[in-house]
Amino acid sequence: MVVFFYTLFFYSLYDASETDDGGIGASATKGQFPIHWVLVLLMLFALMLAERTAYTMHSMRAKALYHFGTLAIFTCYAVYAAHTDSYSRAGASRHRVAVLQLFFVLKALSMAVSAAQLRHGFPDFTQGQFFFHAVSISRHIGFVLYRALPYLYELRTIHDWACASTTLTLYDWLKLEDIYSSLYMVRCDLELARLKRRVGDKTRMRQKLLQGGLFFAALVLVLWLPLLLFSSANPSLSANPVTDISLELAVVPVRGQGRIALWSGGALRQMADLGSIGDRVLGEVGLGGLSDLSHETLQLACLERTSIGTWSVPKPTLQRLANNLTAESAISTTWTMTRARPTGFTTLSFTDSQPLGAAWHTFNASLFEAGMSTLVARAHAAILRLSPTAGVAAVGTLRANLSLVLEADARDDEQWWEARASSGNASAASAGDVNDALGVDGAANGTAWSDASLWEVARERCEPFVGPWVVLVSDAVVKGAIAEQLSAIGVASLYVTFVLGVGRFVRLFASNLRMRIPYENLPSTRRLWELVEDVYAARAEGQLALEEELFFTLINVYRSPSILYEFSRRPRPKQD
After folding, report:
1. What is the spatial distance between Cα 183 and Cα 466, in angstroms, rounded to a whole number?
2. Beta strand pairing call for 347-355 and 373-381
3. What is the pTM of this model?
4. Which of 25-39, 65-79, 261-275, 555-569 has the lowest mean pLDDT?
């Protein structure tokens, strides 16, 4: 089992030197494990089952076959792998050989124990519990941990029943194992705790700290850990800037159906820095405390004004579009952003629309006359916030203006749209006026940034790109595969699935304790313990009729409270 867990946790050290994909850790992050790692674990698990089967069935022949077979297989593989790595890359091969050597040392120790077992033979009693041979603190803790491991107790119990010669059904076998385990816990309680104190002694402070203190701390941690995990105090938080961005503009006729793409861009762009004004923008969206991450959390995306594709629309379609245009027709903007994390939410999109209003006449005319500019006031949101899992949302009321111009090249008979950032009809402020305005808390003065003021900032930072722009505020995300999965679940889902689940388990643990009194508060377990061990001894000797008779005697004891009381009475002191 030590070899199995060594392979489970440290195989990545061997695998990372062999491949360039980061080993098991990187595969876990991607949600896909390498098949060779899974096959190795399956092989080790099958070998453990084979050894346990030989031990349970007292088959020395099967044990010898297993011992010499695995010895030959692992020795040949270790020699071959070490010899192959010695002629491969020097740096990586030394690391791989060291990991392989430790694996072989652990397996050699296992083989030594197996050889000693072959030499001295199996014990007569092989279907009991290792922890039950004596009562001690270490064995008690080991048994509690053994029962806490998922499926280990069930797998061992079912496997032993399948390999043993017995008259008991699987359900009866599980009953016997449960009685045996509960009696051992009562024995530990009697011999380690109760018998070491006198009547009237106070509970020791050490016991209060180890039991009540740790239990209380664990419950508080379960209750508050999700909130701390999703708070800004999480030390694993890191900036998650946008690495790629594109924009598509389209016209959406109200009386028509569908939409017609006008402009697309993003191939030529730059991510500008807002400098000292960035803190003011962060404060506008409620992130003013992120001073350390401002330069990566806050980005100003500036796009080239010229569309990356030409605009070619058949004349009948163009005429129907012009006929359907009204003041309620809108210009649709669709931003598409790409970031590195979290997994499953790396690509986000945000669609916004703004009615043409009074500009629809100008836009209608520009469809047939190149070079005519149409001002779309407040065309799209100026500040977008990217959350880890909730998508993109516009922040505040600030919006950016766009001027749409249909350009044409008569020689090549091509047309394309240009989208230029514009201050609109608002008066453009000077750079000094803008900085002064942004330094004042708008909430305190009853005013907020104007669209024109923010446009002046964008124009200064975006040169020479004068196309569409947007301010991106990316929330920090946690690093690591487990942290990303928890972040993807969300704090509400984490509370429902984990916190409430643990709460339900704790409530079941602390409820109906009175029903356990007849089976846990026993003055003595000597007679019951001897009866259970007699069942195992009868099975080991092959006396199956006696095994069945003793088992149902034990069942009758537990069925009758009076008989159970008599069996668990403390022996009376002998009188002289």
Report:
1. 81
2. unpaired
3. 0.60
4. 25-39
